[in-house]
Amino acid sequence: MTAYKITELNHFMSKLLKTDCFDLFLLQEAVITTYNTFTIDGRLEKDFFTREEWEEPSVRPYDLSRWADIRAVCFSLIRGKKTPTAMKFVLPVRPDIREKLIAASETKIPDGYVKDFVLTIRYDGTSMTCITGVSITGFLPDKTPERLWDETFRRFLVKKGIAFETQ
């Protein structure tokens, strides 16, 4: 787990909310505090869908909402003349991206060991921090998945031109 302090907040928020830069993620949770605190649970609601829709992979490829499908909702809650007092986004990478990262790794990570590579974005009213995390299903004697995700996310920030300081 590594924390990355974002040094150009406006640029980062533009990338997060107005572009497809973070569309390789799903939304697990969003909490946005402005004049109210808005909480979005990213889990899809089975009762909203017909049985056929729920079972159709093209309609519901994941159990969580795609960031691409929900970012406009988050943007509508944030935009305005006043800055939110706090925000938190919990974004696991899509399963296909997770599997590509594991397959490309130089070290062996057992199948099914990594449940999620997660990015938590926190804004406390003054600064924005991105925190990497890994959800695992077993025990490994080393931190290979954590190192893989930390390095991958650091390269992602550099490639996307997002300025940061490692904390």
| Structural class estimated from helices and strands | alpha+beta
Distance between the termini: 11 Å
Helix content: 25-40%
pLDDT averaged residue by residue: 92
Question: Layout of helices and strands, plus pairs?
Answer:
Elements: E1 3-6, H1 9-18, E2 26-27, E3 29-33, E4 37-41, H2 51-55, E5 65-66, H3 67-78, E6 86-92, H4 95-104, E7 114-123, E8 128-136, H5 144-159, E9 164-166
Antiparallel strand pairs: 1-8, 1-9, 2-5, 3-4, 3-6, 6-7, 7-8
Give a quick set of tags describing it.
167 residues; alpha+beta; 32% helix; two-stranded antiparallel ribbon
Structural features, described:
The structure is a single chain. The protein has helices at residues 9-18, 51-55, 67-78, 95-104, 144-159; strands at residues 3-6, 26-27, 29-33, 37-41, 65-66, 86-92, 114-123, 128-136, 164-166. It has one domain (3-166). The strands form 2 sheets. The protein has a 7-stranded antiparallel sheet, with helices on one face. A two-stranded antiparallel ribbon has the order 2-5. It has 5 helices and 9 strands; from the N terminus they run E-H-E-E-E-H-E-H-E-H-E-E-H-E. 32% of the residues lie in helices and 28% in strands. The chain is globular. The relative contact order is 0.23. The mean pLDDT is 92. With 167 residues, it is an alpha+beta fold.
